[in-house]
Amino acid sequence: MPITASFSTSQSVGSPSEIILTDSSSGSDITATTRRIYIVNAAGEYITESGTTTAVAYTEFPLADGSSITLDVLDFDMALYITLTYNTVAGAVVATVTNLRGFTLYNETFYYALTQAQAMQNQPPPMIMQDSTYYTYKGILRTEIDSGNNAIEYGSDITSAQAAYDRATFLVTNQNIYF
Fold first, then answer.
1. Residue 119 has what pLDDT?
2. For the chain, how far is it from start to end, CA to CA, in angstroms?
3. Is residue 11 domain-shared with residue 95, that is, in the same domain?
4. Are residues 113 and 33 part of one domain?
5. 1-59 pLDDT per residue, tens
6. What residues are paired with 96 via a beta bridge?
7. Are residues 129 and 147 in the same domain?
8. Is 0.70 topped by the overall pTM?
């Protein structure tokens, strides 16, 4: 049976810069000797652990390395097209699949930290969360993260997703103003 390429992605709490890609492909092809992972951001740039470039770039994922690989490629929340290919020794593609994914652990971690801070504030002095705008901005942060996720899930829209993630990141980067 020929290869049907498939994969899932995840992030681990405490490591927001890392993407874990798990290959769940089925079938086989004796000509396939390796896999490649292409990661493309909303600007059309290729991302690898070595950096970002406009030239086509990929990460080699040898078949002997098992079904999972961890890639340290994120500096902030991003919407990314990820392509997994199975290739021959000459580089010809035997099977391929591309998925649009959102990676939001930077902003989600900050959002959770806000929740933890709220839970710990039972005594004076008053926290900033008592300011009239605290919950407004916390709600905006949640809305932007969710908007990015919805753009991916319902619209396959990398541009809108990245714009929403960028607005959330702006709030976190400027937390001394908003929170």
1. 77
2. 55
3. yes
4. no
5. 799 999 999 999 999 999 999 999 999 999 999 999 999 999 999 999 999 999 999 99
6. 85
7. yes
8. yes
Cα–Cα dist 38/123, whole Å: 51
CB 165 within 8 A of CB 144: yes
Do both 89 and 19 map to the same domain? yes
Q: Are residues 11 and 78 in the same domain?
A: yes
Residue 1 lies in a domain: no
Q: Which of 165, 145, 154, 163 is nearest to 100 (CA)?
A: 154
User: Who's near 175: CB < 8 A, 6+ residues apart?
Assistant: 110
Q: Say whether both 13 and 69 belong to one domain.
A: yes
Q: Tell me how far apart the alpha carbons of residues 13 and 92 are, in angstroms, rounded to a whole number.
A: 36
pLDDT over 90 for what percent of the chain? Answer: 87
